[in-house]
Design goal:
Elements (H helix, E strand, L loop, with lengths): L8 H28 L5 H20 L3 H22 L1 H11 L4 H8 L2 H13 L5 H18 L14 H19 L9 H27 L6 H29 L1 H6 L4 H13 L5 H17 L13
Length: about 300
């Protein structure tokens, strides 16, 4: 399907803008989640995050309840993997990994996602990467590594990866497959209806882990500040960002949307400075310019939406 080539310039620009905003919102998630790590367990945070999303979506998708039920009945083979790859299990894996690793490592592993998307598209869907895409990916990768290494590339040689890093890497692989498979979702659902279905199918997947965490760590102590943070994570980085991401992938395809994930580390650094008091440096600005330049180069030519094998 070459739906991506039928877009008007304004629609394509809107999709790119939506993906940039998505990266900014996801960039804020790590800083807010770190504020909660001492009081809310990683599985509990993910479970409460998506439970709030579901409550918010109920009145929005109520008129689609029959379509959602039919989609689950008729397309469960497509929806269940998508729910596992992009829903609560994936979120919980990120938070569990984040509790055992550093934000720097999280940024490094997150930068692998665009590479994974290109490889999955190449191996699984016979879509060969173009020269501009590879060149843009290389430039933006340098920008990401510059930020992660805090301006000292030699520091990357001394990273020691642990089990938390492995979990984050698994979560990034899951998200890459979710992004590539997203265009195959049932077309009878709105984007909000699809997100509700993802939550509906994925919340039960982590229910045993949620109960186990409650039994071992006790019920989280959630005051007004913690609730505000969880509400923010549910509404902005989850509901808002996943809607924008879904719309962007639908318009410009999995590969080009993946390039914009490289914008997350610069935004994460900005939010860390605003929320956690971390300092911004010149390498942040240089890295952001490289990331932005690489993304522009990668998306210079239009791309087809990955929904079938290339012909």
């Amino acid at each position: 399907m070459n739906a991506g080539h039928a877009l008007t310039p304004w629609t394509r620009a809107g999709a790119y803008a939506a993906l940039i905003v998505t990266s900014a919102l996801w960039g804020s998630n790590g800083s807010v989640a770190r504020l909660l790590m001492g009081s809310v367990g990683p599985v509990s945070l993910s479970f409460m995050r998506w439970s709030l999303v579901m409550l918010i979506l109920i009145p929005i998708v109520w008129h689609e309840r029959t379509a959602i039920a039919l989609a689950v009945r008729d397309h469960w083979r497509t929806l269940v993997p998508l729910a596992f790859l992009g829903g609560v299990p994936q979120n919980a894996t990120v938070y569990i990994g984040l509790s055992g690793t550093t934000a720097i490592h999280l940024g490094l592993l997150n930068s692998i996602v665009p590479v994974m998307i290109i490889l999955i598209g190449w191996v699984g869907y016979a879509r060969r990467p173009r020269g501009l895409e590879l060149g843009g990916l290389a430039i933006s990768s340098v920008g990401v590594l510059l930020i992660i290494a805090q301006g000292d590339f030699a520091a990357l040689m001394h990273f020691e990866f642990n089990f938390g890093d492995i979990l984050v890497l698994v979560a990034m692989l899951c998200w890459s497959f979710y992004t590539v498979r997203f265009p195959m979702r049932p077309k009878g659902l709105s984007l909000f209806g699809f997100l509700f279905t993802v939550g509906l199918l994925s919340l039960p997947m982590v229910l045993p882990l949620f109960v186990s965490e409650l039994l071992s760590q006790g019920v989280p102590s959630v005051g007004a500040t913690e609730f505000a943070a969880i509400f923010y994570i549910a509404v902005v980085p989850t509901l808002g960002a996943m809607f924008l991401h879904a719309w962007g992938v639908e318009k410009v395809g999995a590969v080009q949307s993946g390039f914009f994930l490289h914008a997350m580390p610069p935004f994460a650094a900005l939010f860390a400075a605003l929320l956690l008091g971390e300092q911004l440096h010149a390498y942040h600005a240089i890295g952001f310019v490289l990331v932005a330049g690489g993304a522009v180069l990668s998306c210079w030519k239009q791309d087809a939406v990955l929904s079938s094998r290339a012909r």
